[in-house]
Amino acid sequence: MNGKESLITRISWLKNPFKRATIDAAKTFKGQTGIEIGGPSKPFDLRSFFPVYLYAGKIDGVNFSNTTVWEGNIKEGDSYQYSANRPKGHQYIDEAAALASVPDNHYDFLLSCHSLEHVANPVQALKRWNAVLKPGGRLCLILPDKRYTFDHNRPYTAFEHLLQDYRNGITEQDATHFDEVIRLHDLTKDREQTKAALIDRTQNNYTNRCVHHHVFSFELIGQLLNYCGFKVDMTREFAPFHLFTLATKTN
Length: 251
Known about the structure:
9 helices; 31% helix; alpha/beta; eight-stranded mixed beta sheet
């Protein structure tokens, strides 16, 4: 795409009231300090539907390991380059559901794009994410829409199942859904994988964290957020497979 085509595309976004709402919402984060779980993420960058990177004052990042499938080698410290020409944030190496090294009541907002599905205990994670936010802090959560991904054959996860996982103290070593993942994964929508590679990747999930433990709908997202002390402010579907939710911490 050349510069003129990019500009035309951007103008069409701005004239679309559906997309305009999320762009306007991103502007309300101007100057604020946030933290992102599992980033950086394209949907938060300049030309996407929620360009919060453009407006935020500073964003720190969290990844579970010094080496990930998505980011390669990273290191803890002031090295989180979430967007070009933006100040670097602090990179934490920490579990998304624990955030043991992240202070409570510290951030104005938290971003999570296609990361919560990789967490074995979403309730525990969301409760912890709530705790690191200041009163009235906001959460932007993006999850895959299974209808357009390799998960489309899998059933939606029940809220009661996630509550039981929380009560049972499920950890990242959980393998409950591995058989389902392997059996129902649509390889035609994941052409980089063979069946053998999928099995190997799934069985070694604690190292790579590629498994989608659970499958989310807007209904399930709403139930989760309400239980974990958030109020849903906005939901949107965006191509090719994004379920976008903006919520506010209430307690």
